[in-house]
Amino acid sequence: MSASRSQRDRMGSIALHVTLVVFGALSLLPLLWMVSASFMATGEASSFPPAVIPHHPTLEHYRDLFGRLALGRYAFNSALVAVVTTIAALAINSSAGYAFAKLRFRGRDQTFRVLAAGLAIPVQVAMLPLFLLVKSLGLVNNYGGVIIPGLASIFGIFLVRQYALAIPDDLLDAARIDGASEFRVFRSIVLPTIKPVLATLALWTFLATWNDFMWPLIVLSDDYKYTLPVALAGLVGEHAQDVELMMAGAVVTVLPVLTLFLFLQRYYVEGVTEGSVK
Amino acid sequence: MIRRIAPGWWFVAPALTLITIFFLGPVIAAVGLSFTDFDLYALADPNAARWVGFRNYTRVLHEPLFWQALRNTLYFALVGGPLTVAASLGAALLVNARALRWKGTARAVFFAPFVTTLVAVAIVWRYLYHPKYGLLNWLLGHVGIQQIDWLGDPRWAMPAIILMATWKNFGYNMLICIAGLQNIPRELHEAAALDGASPFQRFRHITMPMLAPTLFFVVVVTMIGYLQLFTEPYIMTGGGPLRATTSLVLYMYEEGFRWWRLGVAAAIAFLLFILIVIFTIVQRRISPRSGV
User: Fold this and answer.
1) In angstroms, rounded to a whole number, what is the distance separating the alpha carbons of residues B114 and A203?
2) How many CB atoms lie within 10 A of CB A122?
3) What distance in Å separates the CA atoms of residue B164 and residue B232, rounded to the nearest whole number?
4) Which of A40, A43, A76, B35 could be a cystine partner for A54, CB 3.0 to 4.6 Å?
5) How confident is the model at residue A11 (pLDDT cuts 50, 70, 90)?
6) Do A269 and A220 share a structural domain?
């Protein structure tokens, strides 16, 4: 009796792991093929039956991208925009999130409710007047035009506020009694306490900025200033036939964010679950 | 005594200023813009724009392309949303199974597509969907399915985009489903198992009812996100073939930033906003626990 039970458990466990391997492989297949095709010789990915592994692996497409097509320039633009946005967004959203959680001031709750309502408004509604505003500020085709509108994030403020609510008031009051200014309290006590949520916010902001497409596409008109996704979208227009070259471009674009995620996934995952139980 | 500004205001001032100037302000301005004939000429000289009342709205509502874009967008959201969440739930059940080893790896594998750059993976899928050389048709060929012209056939283009979006996004909701599954008290399952309930019966009578509010919430939130479809058709189909994948946002983008009819585009943006408000109201009405 118990033998058949454990046998059934074993069968169940094998079936479970086989299912996992099959679906895991399906989930990774597009990314694995992207990497593999990027090392294929020109034309190899357009054959039947489809080539899965490169016959003679080559780096020619990467050389082509960074040489003739100046992809390094776009990678630099992307990195610049994402890093500046992340640092500034951290400062702006963490101080606001903390204040909404822990400081008392008149109009706080009403202001917060307006922000909460704003969460339901899709960004596309703001985009057309925003473009006119950015244009009148002379920021079209300028990194500032890409960076500044996205710095303050209602989602980011929510995330930090949720976390900061758990800071004990006694801790803050003790510092105030010792004569610390509000700014000092924030810097020396609050920031160290909310470090994990700052990591989450930094990661989210970086990935979202790196991956963003529609707004940079609208604001940047000069090839020289393109971020990677915008450059890639332009490239696929001219080089749609060069499958292997396009796959190398996709690898260069995806690799940094995928690497960041793999090393810091704990923080990313916490962001998702925090955000969903707000 | 000098009246001091409460320190709290100093802390929120930078964020509030930016949000007001670059988000809430433009949202309000969008209403005004949608009542003007702002176009390429007005772009050079804003004084050239005139107040035209509801003309942009009546014009858009008489445009067959608007209705097609609306149908396409609803198709994507109403089919893609539930499909994505179904995949999320399946993956969550798999990752959460007690007998499973390598849980962390499994979770990372399913989540990886979500963090990738949409433009890049949309290009990858363009080639996976190639009717002749694409991996997908080759795989389907093994189970006897005839060549499908995924992105070239108006009937298949939207399903192709839905499939790609499902692959890209299911990992996100999977995490929320896992959290939901872990909130179900283990004793419930143990008691049911003692009473002889099969795993399937336990799924139907314990897991599903306990998870239903979470699932409903997640489906609606996913649909709202999907109403903003843009990048996938922009990269994979350009809105075609025969406009079969032109979404509302793509339509708005073309009107606003290709033809520079910003007044018309603002009207489209507002109609999209109304659609999203309707979805949000339905969600708040039906599920009581989701209020902020």
Assistant:
1) 14
2) 19
3) 9
4) A40
5) confident
6) yes
Verify that A79 and A48 share a domain, yes or no: no
* Cβ <8 Å between A214 and B231: yes
> Is residue A22 domain-shared with residue A65, that is, in the same domain?
no
> Among the three residues A59, A88, A108, which one is the final residue of a domain in this structure?
A59
- Are residues A30 and B179, on separate chains, in Cβ contact within 8 Å? no
pTM of the model: 0.92
Chain A nearest CA to B66, separation (Å): 16
Same domain (yes/no): A47, A84: no
What phi and psi values does residue B237 have, to the nearest 5 degrees?
-130, -15
CB B263 within 8 A of CB B29: no
Q: Tell me the C-alpha distance between A80 and A266, whole Å.
A: 25
Number of domains in chain A: 2
pLDDT reading at A276 higher than 60: no
Among residues A27, A59, A91, the one where a domain terminates is A59
**Average pLDDT rounded to a whole number, residues A99-113:** 92
The answer to whether residue A82 scores a pLDDT higher than 90 is yes
Question: Within this chain, do residues A41 and A70 fall inside the same structural domain, yes or no?
Answer: no
Give the nearest chain B residue to A249 (CA atoms): B120
CB atoms B117 and A253 under 8 Å: yes
Domain boundaries, chain B: 29-290
Among B100, B121, B280, whose Cβ lies nearest the Cβ of A120? B280
Is the pLDDT at A270 greater than 80, yes or no?
A: no
Is A128 in contact with B262 (Cβ distance < 8 A)? yes
Q: Do A148 and B22 touch (CB under 8 A)?
A: yes
Query: Best mutation site among A125, A217, A244 for testing chain B: the one with the most B CBs within 10 Å?
Result: A125
CB-based contact B133 A45, cutoff 8 Å: yes
- Which CATH number covers residue A150? 1.10.3720.10
Q: How many CB pairs under 8 A join A and B?
A: 267
Q: Which CATH architecture has domain B29-290?
A: Orthogonal Bundle (1.10)
Q: What percent of chain A has pLDDT over 90?
A: 62
State ipTM: 0.91
Which residue of A125, A129, A213 is in closest CB contact with B118?
A: A213
Domain limits for position A270: 61-276
Q: What is the pLDDT of residues B218-253, one digit of tens each?
A: 999 999 999 999 999 999 999 989 999 999 999 999
Q: What is the mean pLDDT of each run of 10 residues along chain B (292 residues)?
A: 75 95 94 90 83 92 96 97 96 87 88 95 95 90 88 95 97 92 86 85 88 90 94 93 95 95 94 93 71 36
